[in-house]
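U., I forgot to send this yesterday:
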Amino acid sequence: MSDAQGASSSGGEAGLLARILPILAGEERATAGFPFLGPGDDAAFVPLAGGALVTVDAVVEGQDFLWRWPCGLEHDPRDVGYKSVAQNVSDVNAMGGVPRWAVVSLQFPKGTPAERLEGIARGMREALDELAPECRIVGGDLGRAGETASTVTVLGEAGPEGPKTRSGARPGDVVAVAGDLGRAAAGLALLLGDREIPERLMPWVRAQFRPVPPMQAGPAATTATAMMDVSDSLARDANRLAEASGAALALDADALAQDADALMEPAAFLGAGRELAQEWALIGGEDFALLAAFPSREDCPQGFRVIGEVREARPGAPAVTLSGRELTAEGWDHLERD
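Result:
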């Protein structure tokens, strides 16, 4: 890690690193028995036998979170670190792999309290301990920026059958999901409201702050013909999988009814009903569920539930339907958001 300036009460870069690195390192643990070199040199060294899955994503102030939300809730720095790890280990999970190594980059404005950066580091550590205990942080960077940003790069190990992709779904396959749909979107709607959030609704807020990808389901999906995580919405990501596979997906509204049922309480609090709950389930993002295709129901491992089937793509026909009606590719898009 290098180039840290501007954090208050940190003792400069060396002092800040002395506070953060022990948090990121956590307890000593074996990582597949491989030797490695972590922070301390110009670059980390990790063994890459036969290739690696690699992904990177960021959590950025003003784009992905606010230090103070319109509802009045203060954002815990630990949640910034947690989510920045969770969304990246989810990408490896979606390829059927296991996260092994990570490097982090923390960017922050001049005068940022060192305690805030420590909090972000603690959140990263908590996410790794809970979601990817075999993954180690081996390096990174600290630097000045106009807003706080936590960027994580994760390297993962693919399963014995190789990485799962979006492009293998074939007509006759079943479509299945593992994990939650719409909970993070419900939490975001509560945060952006102008009312104090009661404690009974905090589970949905926590789903936005600390998403929990189904990390056991990814490596278990050995028979999946195609797979990806639902980061931007079921509607948008189903269209992506259909396009990549050159196929059509026919989803069953009844199979997704339970997802809307689970969102009725926050919808009611906001003065809405089932229509909003269904919208969250279909076009809400950031739950990091898994969307996959399998040759049959019997091939779906524990944790997956069937929500539709793969059909042949037809010229002029929708790529994805929900009980016969077109499901357009709506959902989260960083570049389209104001």
